[in-house]
Amino acid sequence: MNGTLALVGGAEWTEGCSFDAALVADTDEVLILPSALAYENPGLALARAEAWFGALGKTIRVLDVYRRADARAIDPAIAAEARCIYVPSGSPMHLRSVLKDTPLLDAMVTAWRNGATVAAAAEAAAVLCSHMVDLRGGAFTVGLDLITTMTVIPRSNVWSHDKWHRTVQLAPRSLPLVGVDEATALLHHPDGTWEIQGVGGIRVVIDGQTGDVTNLPASLNPVLDS
What we know:
Layout: E1 5-8, H1 20-23, E2 29-32, H2 42-55, E3 59-62, H3 68-73, H4 77-80, E4 84-87, H5 92-99, H6 103-113, E5 117-121, H7 123-127, E6 131-133, E7 140-142, E8 151-154, H8 161-170, E9 177-180, E10 184-188, E11 194-198, E12 202-206, E13 209-211, H9 222-225
């Protein structure tokens, strides 16, 4: 059975992210993939992660993958056998270039399909989608094709009205746009249901109309879910 997917709106591993305790409850180790942080002082974020999860009684294991060559050289079994994988925020374009069409990405999908929990924060959550929102201006670009039935807009609490309007206008027909606030997680459970946890909320727009969590598709990707 597929595992839980946590789409975190940003500000991960900070006060308010109370949902992390449940995400890591069934494992002693959290595997962290910091690829998106390659040019953003990953050591600082990883130190925060170590302290955060340490307070929950967990250890972290860092997968040192910062370049595409790293993703091809690393043993994919490390990810495939993980029980909890966390991909923090950073550069979506760099993360996409590192992971696309690699054995490592396939291994992460395998872990999720085998019941592992996968969390992706902010830009990392956006890049999972086929229709990835360019967070600089609200238009669309190509993501990793792991979530095909909706698109994720992280840090939606700080998005301007103009960016929202542009994204809504450019969105493919019937594609749900899901904004997730910082320090907030939109959880997709193995049974296909959705849940919101954390200090913020979400915003759902479909064909220009406001919806809610009940309007989100049960399936993230019909191919992966089959």
